[in-house]
Write a structure and sequence with these properties.
By secondary structure, the protein is of the alpha+beta class. It folds into 2 domains: 135 residues, no CATH class; 112 residues, Cyclophilin (Beta Barrel), CATH 2.40.100. Helices cover 15% and strands 26% of the residues. The chain is built from 4 helices and 15 strands. The radius of gyration is 20 Å and the shape is elongated.
Amino acid sequence: MAPQRLARANAVVRNAAGVAAIEVYGALEVVARGGTIEVGDDGGMRRVLGDGEAFVVATEGRARVRYLAVRGGIDVPVVLDGRGTLLVAGMGGYRGRALRRGDVVGSGSESESESGSESGSESESESESESESESESGSGSESESESVEIVDGPDADARVLEAIAHATFTISAQSDRIGTRLDGPALPAHLMHDARDRARSRPMIAGAIELTPSGLVVLGPDHPTTGGYPVIAVVREASLGALLARPIGAGVRFVRSA
């Protein structure tokens, strides 16, 4: 969901940026079993846990997703050249599903990043961690509106894009890894809405913004092909992770760029 947050968590425990970690929605407590293990989160907190000691990572309304990294990475099989979980297909990661209470997950031996110096400290305070996480990710309070850069999509419509540029949207509770639905004002109809039987489904990328009859949907990492809806814009890669990490109810404003 948020590659920058994943990279930051891995840096804390001196892993390479893309090493497998745990994506957290809500709250997660991990407990060390059978020895010591080094863990860290995307807010800069790091701990060396002894047998039986616990570490908690929680979104607490500040973000929709956070990350817990383990020194050496999470030991799960490589499927289609990656260790991630594709929940919609039930494959990859840990048995193709979300983690449950009592699951036992091992650490791996992934190579560390040369640039991954001592990024975290066991003495860092919780307040310092929260401040760093919010300032770097742009996922502050729900009352703030995050500016997100977009470029025109293959079905760009001048009237729709102008309306979007002057509106503020909020992250809907009907959002997941497939797509982030945005609540906001009614938008002008698109020509393709009158020709759905002639609009073919197409391959798509994360960050594509579909204009559905009920509003805007930003496709996430588990996105399908389009369902024939017009793709009016695409979120720039540099802005996508911060957008997808925004908490439910947070404000979003789009800035059109060349």
